Structures are given as structure tokens and as C-alpha cells.
Amino acid sequence: MKPWQEFTHYVGLDWAKDHHSVVVVDRDGNIVADLEFEHSAEGWKSFAEKTAAWPNLAVSIETSQGAVVDQLLQRDYTVYPVHPVAAQSYRQRKAPTGTKTDHLDAWGLADALRVDGHGWKALQPMDPLTQELRLLCRDEMALIEQRTALVNQLQQALLEYYPAALEAFEDWTKPSAWEFVLGFPTPQVLSLAGKRKWDKFLHSHKLWRTGTVEKRLEVFARADQFKASRAIVQAKSQLAVSLCRVLITLSKQLELYRQQIEELFEKHPDHDLFGSLPGARKVLAPRLLAALGSDPNRYGSQEVLQTIAGTAPVSYQSGKINHVHIRWACDKFMRCTVHLWANCFRRSSGWGQAYYRKKREEGMSHACALRCLGQRLLKIVFRMISDKAPYDAELHARNQQKHGSWVLKLVTKSTGSDRGEQLA
């Protein structure tokens, strides 16, 4: 990437699915090029040829990822991503009336880059291994969300004609519950199957447990007491069976994703760094590496990292009005990953649990307390990736003691209280 002082021309690129609009301005703000090209090999070749006259140019675009950004980075352009809310403001600066066109969007981005770009941070491309890991983790989360949606559909269908199945199985993300619906698609089929087949199903799926088997068998025995109309049973059982087959296929694909993610994580040079984080384990550690990356230069400071992750709050002050609210403009994948990790961290760390409990006592919601904990954890992670040093609980405790941390006092107090209860 080139330093800001070398840029002589500034590009605003308004991207779309099949074509992109481009406006190029010089240092004086004059439009020197206004063009449109298709999102194809020929189109990108045309874009490169038409902008070759200005080798020292920077590109602003209303996204930080995707196929368009990938094409720009492959061609060694310096890319400045712009948030959609900011992009809208830049367009309105050109057209206060509310007029919106692709040309105006591109012009607004180009001129904003010329005027304000010296304070922006250029997009730092990830190394290929981290980038592949990030894409796999993002797609895995998207598939998990689809599984959740399918499970919700399945439970709704069963509620209408087969409530006994819902009562017999609590976790509908497990294949054994889907196999049950495929084996016994209606209450009548389950009733006619008899106890011998019930026992065989429970044994073959390793569900024969002392604490649950009697309850399940009792539910199976009275499953046909709830009788929906024939039309509902026929239609909803077909839907339930279809959903279960899709879920089984999706589950197999998720297993492949998990296998690929773990293999890539094992190969990554920062495997031990993120693997040392308490509560991360083998699921969240790869996601944290994929979401945050291991290059501190991507952020420059811990405050920037906290802002992008959405843990840093937004302040609003005007006259006597002064309040703080959640930050919505952030990397959603990073926010979700940090949120999940903060919840796991508090269960595996004494000071994490004490910190979380204190925030809850102050009246914060569960999500707000986890954001506060995530804000603190990101400070630690930024130091880790800067120093390339794994998490050291003893070192962190010494630092807390050195600075007189109020969290350490809570941990000490909680430990003393627990010992007192044990002695009592």
C-alpha cells in the first residue's frame, strides 16, 4: 500500500451485483473519469485499462469484504472501506434534496476520500490462511443459523400434530431427534410400532439412560392420545419428514466445515496464541482468530479493535442530554464471536465471573454485562497479538494486583466467602 501523500487521484466505486459505477477525481476535486463496467473478467480488465493513466490512486467503497474488494486487492489497489451510513451522508453532501443515483454515490465517495481520506485507515488484507479460515467460519455460522431456522419450523410442525415428540426430546439440534421423526413420523405409527421397537431405537441411538428412558417410554405409550385431523397429520408429517432429511444433510455438511476449520487452525502459526484463551476451546478459538486476525496493524490501537467489534459504546451529548447506547455500526461476525467467547470466558475464569456478576448487580442486562467483559477481553487480546505471547493467567493476576484492580478485590472477597461457606 502507498502512503497517503503519494495519491494524486481518488476513486469512488459504487458496486452492484452485475455492474459497478466509478468516478475518479483529482486533488482539486475535478471529475476526470466517469464510467461504468460489468462485474466480469472483461469488465475488470476495462476498469484497469481506463484507470492506468493514474497509477497513484486510492479507492473508496461501501464495503470491506466480498468479490469486489477481493478483485481490487488482487490488483494491488489501496482500498478505503466506508460505512453505509457515512456513505449516505457523503451523497447528501452532494445532493441535499435526497436525489440518489449510482453516479452520485460514486462521486460522493470519491470526493469524501479526497477531502477526509487522510484520516481514514486503509484496508489491511489478511494473509491467505487467515482469510480462508475467516470465510469458512462465517459460512459455518450462516449454516448454523439456517439449521436453527429449520429446527424452529420442525418444532412448529410437530406442535400441530405430534406434541409427544416435542415432549420426548428436548434438544432438536441432535440427529437422534430427527431420526425419531423419520422412524415414527406420526403418533399412530409410533403407537403401532410397540415397545420392542421403541427400545431398539433408544438403544441404537444411545439414548437408553436411567434418568430419561422411563419418561420417554411413558410419553411414547400415550402419544396417540392427542389426535389432530387427518388433513393436518398428512400435511404436517410430510413437512416434518422433509425438514428432518434436510437437517441430516445439513448436519453432515457442518461436520465437514468443522473438520476443515480445525485443520486450518492447526496449521496457523498463531494456533497456540488463540488456543490459550480461556473458554475458547477448539470451537471459538478458530473463530476468534478468523474474526480478529493476528495482525495488530489492521487496527493500530485497542480502541479501534473494540470499536469494530462493537463492544465500545456510543456516546451522545448535546446540551444537558448525555447518554450512552450500544454500537450498531460494527463487524457483526466479530461482535457475535466476542459475545459468545465472553459468555464462555466468565464460566472458566474467576475474575471474569466476578466482573460479570458486578455488572449484573449494577443493573446491567446479561448482554450488556457480556459486552463490558468483551471490551476488557479485547484489550488483553490486542496486547497478546502485539507481543505474540499466549494468555498467561498468572501474569494477568500480577498486573491486576500491581494496578490495584477492583476486579481482583472482588475475586479475593468471593474466594474468602466461598471458603467460609465450606467451613460452615
Features:
424 residues; alpha/beta; globular; Helix Hairpins; five-stranded mixed sheet; disordered C terminus; Nucleotidyltransferase, domain 5; 62% helix
Q: Residue share in helices?
A: 55-70%
Beta-strand content: 5-15%
What is the first-to-last residue Cα distance? 66 Å
What is the tally of beta strands?
7
The CATH topology of the largest domain, please?
Helix Hairpins
Report the sheet with the most strands, covering strand number, pairing sense and barrel closure: 5 strands, mixed
Characterise the protein shown here.
- It is built from 19 helices and seven strands.
- It has 424 residues and is of the alpha/beta class.
- Helix 5 crosses helix 13.
- The protein has three domains: 4-119, Nucleotidyltransferase, domain 5; 131-264, Helix Hairpins (Orthogonal Bundle); 273-392, no CATH class.
- It starts with 8 loop residues before the first strand and ends with a helix.
- A five-stranded mixed sheet has the order 3-2-1-4-5.
- It has helices at residues 41-50, 67-74, 84-94, 102-116, 128-161, 163-168, 175-183, 187-193, 195-204, 213-221, 230-267, 271-275, 281-292, 302-309, 332-348, 350-361, 366-387, 393-402, 406-423; strands at 9-15, 19-26, 31-38, 57-61, 78-81, 314-318, 321-325.
- The model is unreliable at 416-424 (pLDDT under 50).
- The radius of gyration is 28 Å and the shape is globular.
